[in-house]
């Protein structure tokens, strides 16, 4: 005999193998498809949601900058500073200017007077420029110049 059961003709054994192989291929394809869909929908959303809750914040009393503070769900600022236990953390605006009118790559984080219910304009402590809501970046050519200077 050639390894095929005596009571099953050879053609039927090959047909059965084809069916089993086809079913296995379909099941494997479905498993890969389910994995890809889950990876790019459920898991990716969780990662994006987590990333969007990590923000730079500034302590209004100490001036301490926390670059990656996880904002608690369903909360409003000011948030509690884990070091002091006081609700003194606010979202800042970023200022990318220097005193001499050039751009810099690392921002100075500034809490707006408006947010703190203080009167008057908010001035950047580094460059002296007014800082506003959605503070604009320096022009691209100045940022490129700052990047070239940083590489030297």
What does this structure look like?
The protein has 2 domains: 1-52; 54-151, no CATH class. It has 2 helices and 8 strands; from the N terminus they run H-E-E-E-E-E-E-E-E-H. The chain has helices at residues 10-52, 140-151; strands at residues 54-59, 65-70, 79-80, 87-90, 93-97, 103-110, 122-123, 130-131. A 4-stranded antiparallel beta sheet has the order 2-1-4-3. It has a two-stranded antiparallel ribbon with strand order 5-6. Strands 7-8 form a two-stranded antiparallel ribbon. The model has no long low-confidence stretch (mean pLDDT 87).
Keywords:
four-stranded antiparallel β-sheet, 152 residues, 23% strand, alpha+beta, 2 domains
